[in-house]
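Milestone M4 deliverable, item 7.
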Amino acid sequence: MDDTELDRRLRANDPAGAQPRTLEATIDTLIAQPRRPRGRRWMPLAALGTAVAVVGVAVAATDIEAYLLSQPPFMTLDVGTSRTSHGLPYSPLMGADRGEDCRLYVELGGASAAEAAAVDAVWEATDPTAFASAVVARMTAETEAAESTAIQVQLLAELDPALPGIRWAEGSPSLHGWAVTCVPGIG
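Output delivered:
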């Protein structure tokens, strides 16, 4: 080996001289390789799960709100109608709610604020057991219609001390109806 050959071999193995070619080759090799997944397969599933959960909560909240707005004391009333703020404990004798612990609310039409307050006071003082016994005594048959009629007649009798001469859907004020809710915790 002569000096030229030695110089050529030294230059070929010189780390400083060979680095640019080696670096370019390494970069080219890395770019050309297919990219391997690095454990991020769960991210699309997590995003989908989160989206489903958010939609589920929104739907549930909407359904609960709609349901509560169909239950007294939350449901809306016609203009000029008022409802007692206190629900009298009542256990329906007939129908789907038979034997359930429910609350009975009185609905008045055309009552002034003072009249509504007087009815509220009478309704709050009403004995639920005596009311239920009077409804049973007034029933002419064991049907929902008979129970409904007995409730109406008994409500008129209970409210007469607060609003003498109150009638069913006639005059002002009048008994427009009643609402029953059997939802635990409401009332």
